[in-house]
Amino acid sequence: MGYIFNFEDSVLSDKCHHAYSGMISGILQKLAMGLIRPLAGDNVLDIGCGTGAASIPFIEMGSRLTCIDPSVYMLDLAESHIGSRAEFIRGCGEDLPYEDNYFNHSILVSTLEFAQNPEKMLEEAFRVTKDSVYIGFWNKYAIGGTRRRICEFFPELSAPYENAEFFSIWEIRKMIKKMLGNVPMFGRSVYMISPSKNAFAIAAENSRIAQRFPLGVFIGLRVFLVPKFRTKPLSLTVTGRSPVVLNGCGAAMEVNNDGCASL
User: Fold this and answer.
1) DSSP string, 138-197
2) How far apart are CA 164 and CA 157, in angstroms?
3) What's phi and psi for 251, nearest 5 deg?
């Protein structure tokens, strides 16, 4: 199950998101919504929802939202912010209580870092989702160092993030390809520089060109799920001078000497 936020961690996380939510949350939410582009009525699962900060834009877009988290304290905070506009479930991302292809989209924002088995969590997200999965994570190779940069954003949250394992975009892509093959993926990174209200810094953070560099502090990656079909070859018997069995995708068929075919 990995690291579960206790009461103190949850309260600190909530305070940090309120205190530093202006520019930081705005850019992170814009990153997710720009990559996913959900439609009204889409069924969305927030895995490791935390305080619910990543969920709110989906509700505002008219999505049907389900939030799941192993921490009862985080769920209480998320419900206090979102209210009855979402369903809240206490559970583990490595063992989701949903059937295959149940959701249109799933999101994991700052979740893989605290998972005991990140690959299993991704596998479960892909299983219950039919359109796309969005992964938002702190970049292992961020300019200036990941932990130091997180402390710039959320100074009070340094203790919980001591339990986090960080990933690079290449490590995440490798895990995805291992499970799904060469499915389409598209990602961007933000925070090449420190948070600032300077107009130039804000413009730079929102630049599509700057977001293509893989060295920002936070990376958003959308994985497009491609349906897979299994086919079973069936035998095709041809009657003639010498019987021939052909393999094909259709039903077994017998061809007579007069050229007529019968099932």
Assistant:
1) EBTT-TT-HHHHHHHH-GGGTTGGGG---B-HHHHHHHHHHHH-S--EEEEEE-SS----
2) 11
3) -75, 160
Within 8 A by CB and 6+ apart from 243, the residues are 237
Interior angle at CA 95, CA 90 and CA 101, nearest 5: 100
> What is the per-residue pLDDT for 5?
87
Domains of the chain: 7-224 (3.40.50.150), 230-263 (no CATH)
What type of residue is 119? E
Nearest to 111 by CA among 138, 149, 148: 138
Tokens of 106: 């799933």
H-type helices in the chain, by residue range? 7-19, 23-36, 56-60, 72-82, 118-128, 146-153, 169-180, 199-205
What span, in angstroms and rounded, lies between the C-alpha atoms of 53 and 167?
22
Torsion angles phi and psi, residue 165, rounded to 5: -110, 125
pTM for this model (two decimals) = 0.79
Taking only the tens place, the pLDDT of each residue in 210-232 is 666 777 888 999 999 987 766 66
pLDDT in tens, 8-21: 888 888 877 665 55
Give the integer Cα–Cα distance in Å for 112 and 164: 9
Identify the CA nearest to 86 among candidates 110, 113, 51.
51
